[in-house]
Amino acid sequence: MNDSVYQVVELIGSSSDSWELAAQNAVREASKSYKDLRVAEVVEMDVLIEAGMIIAYRTKLRLSFKSGAVD
């Protein structure tokens, strides 16, 4: 195995439908700026509430990518 270095960023994705879609949205957007994405760890999940109703699901991710792989 080659020696490697990875960088980690924290992102928050949101969706009006689910935590899973919120995570997918975060990864999709991150892939526009970071290349060679490796692992996304779910750090936290929460919801936004308005008038007693959930209006958005939010997923905070810790995303790793190979060092030097930024556009």
Please give a structural write-up.
The chain is an alpha+beta fold. The chain has 1 helix and 3 strands; from the N terminus they run βαββ. The chain has one helix at 19-30; strands at 6-15, 37-50, 53-66. A 3-stranded antiparallel beta sheet has the order 1-3-2. A hairpin with a 2-residue loop joins strand 2 and strand 3. The protein is elongated and about 50 Å long. It starts with 5 loop residues before the first strand and ends in a 5-residue tail after the last strand. The mean pLDDT is 91.
How is this structure best summarized?
The protein has 71 residues and is an alpha+beta fold. It has one helix at residues 19-30, and strands at 6-15, 37-50, 53-66. It has one helix and three strands.
Give me the Rg, rounded.
14 Å
Element-level helix/strand string: EHEE
Number of strands: 3
Category from helices, strands and their pairing: alpha+beta
Fold topology:
Elements: E1 6-15, H1 19-30, E2 37-50, E3 53-66
Antiparallel strand pairs: 1-3, 2-3
Structural features:
alpha+beta; three-stranded antiparallel beta sheet; 1 helix; 17% helix
